Amino acid sequence: MKKKSDLNIFNFNTLSLHAGQNPDSDYSSRALPIYQTTSYVFKNANEASSIFNLEQDGHIYSRISNPTVSALEERLASLEKGIGAICTSSGQAALHLTIATLLNAGDHIISSDRIYGGSRNLLGLTLKRFGINTTFVDPNSINQIKKNIRKNTKLFFAETLGNPGLEVLDIEKISKITSEAKIPFLVDNTIPTPYLCNPFDYGANLILHSTTKFIGGHGIAIGGVVIDSGSFDWSKTKKFSNLTQPYKGYQNLNFYQEFGPGAFLSRARAEGLRDFGASLAPQSAFYIMLGVETLGPRMMKHVSNAEYIAAFLSGKDEVKWVKHPSLKSHKGHKLASKLMPKGAGAIISFGLKGGKVNAIKFIENLKLMSHLANIGDAKSLVIHPASTTHSQLTKEDLKKVGITEDLIRISVGIEDLNDLIKDINSALLKVFK
After folding, report:
1. 178, 136 contact by CB (below 8 A)
2. Which domain holds residue 179?
């Protein structure tokens, strides 16, 4: 593995190809080897004992760590400018792992209400059964955030770009509040990816991704990652006893005393992956790494296509409204230009005249775009969120978070732009003939 200090001189596209990996030492393979193994041979009994007791680095069992997965973790941490990362079996697993490591029954989370439906369900319903409550707030309302901070609040969670409403998160402004309240700030950076935005630059403490999406980029492997900036001092508050007090699961080890800024990642791996087992398979890590290698060039094409299509839709009489941060009409346009100067992602939300009926007709008449529940594929994707990804929400909640019955979400791919425009035009003609 390349040392982080050796890579600081390189730029994004170089890091996306080289960080975390050297040519294979055994056979000089330039490609990342897939270590398809459950476990690892120890040199002797002393080494086995030392690794098990976290006294030295090493692989024990692929539920906890694996060399192929480790290379991906190092590369993603490098791209997000973090001190380390843990890959998981999905983006939802990364969110769960973070919460399970930091919080206990009786604790509280503040979350943006402009988030992916699955994340909202986990936070608002599933975690309640385990004694962890979440208050959902408008991320643009500083007063709402401040008003809902409690003594037992241990996490603030939001998405850089809300899904599917594309609200732009004022990371810097929120980070000042969370820092003052000594609450770690977790940002889901899935839609922009580190190529377009680095939340750590604006004060976030932790970042997660569904690597299934733009990072993997090809719709072939489910995965997630949580990355630590190392900027949150876990010892400055008594809230995080999981990290600052002796843990019986490792012979009364104090993770903060032993690992300092790496305490969160160390416990998340040693306890969270060991006990919950939501680990990324090495084969999936290999597929995702292939996506990482082309992340920069792909995002450039995703963004250029999306910006053109957003402007194109804005000029169509059949279209009632369009949301994409590149448009000057978007409320977050100015903020997006600051946080994401290379572009604000490749998701577009829009509504047609005629509401839900015409939205469904439009989707069903598209030939090139795939109608499915995913984003971030190299291929263009489309869906009606109110009846699918966010269908668990009440009508009142849908209205509150800006998901209307007419909303269509397109994840713009990297196809030839002219072909995408033809597909959209053809579907519009069939709906409004």
Report:
1. no
2. 36-282
Contact 203, 186 (CB under 8 A): no
pLDDT tens track, the chain, 433 positions: 344 445 668 999 999 999 999 888 888 899 999 999 999 999 999 999 999 999 999 999 999 999 999 999 999 999 999 999 999 999 999 999 999 999 999 999 999 999 998 999 999 999 999 999 999 999 999 999 999 999 999 999 999 999 888 999 999 999 999 999 999 999 999 999 999 999 999 999 999 999 999 999 999 999 999 999 999 999 999 999 999 999 999 989 999 999 999 999 999 999 999 999 999 999 999 999 999 999 999 999 999 999 999 999 999 999 999 999 999 999 999 999 999 999 999 999 999 999 999 999 999 999 999 999 999 999 999 999 989 888 777 788 887 778 899 999 999 999 999 999 999 999 999 999 8
Same domain, 334 and 187: no
With respect to residue 357, please indicate whether it lies within any of the assigned structural domains: yes
Assess whether 143 and 231 both reside in one domain. yes
Domain of 351, CATH number, reads 3.90.1150.10
Do residues 95 and 212 share a domain? yes
Considering the domain architecture, whether residues 262 and 300 belong to the same structural domain is answered as no
Helix (H) or strand (E) segment spanning residue 289? helix 282-293
Query: Crossing angle for the helix pair 417-431 and 295-314, nearest 10 degrees?
Result: 30
How many folded domains does the chain comprise?
2
Q: Whole-model pTM above 0.90? A: yes
Pair (342, 250) in one structural domain: no
Residue 16 lies in a domain: no
Within a domain: residue 19? no
Structure tokens at 45: 């009994």
* Angle of CA points 231, 16, 301, to nearest 5°: 110
DSSP state letters, 74-118: HHHHHHTT-SEEEEESSHHHHHHHHHHHH--TT-EEEEESSS-HH
Specify if 320 maps to a domain. yes
- Where is 158: in which H helix or E strand? strand 153-159
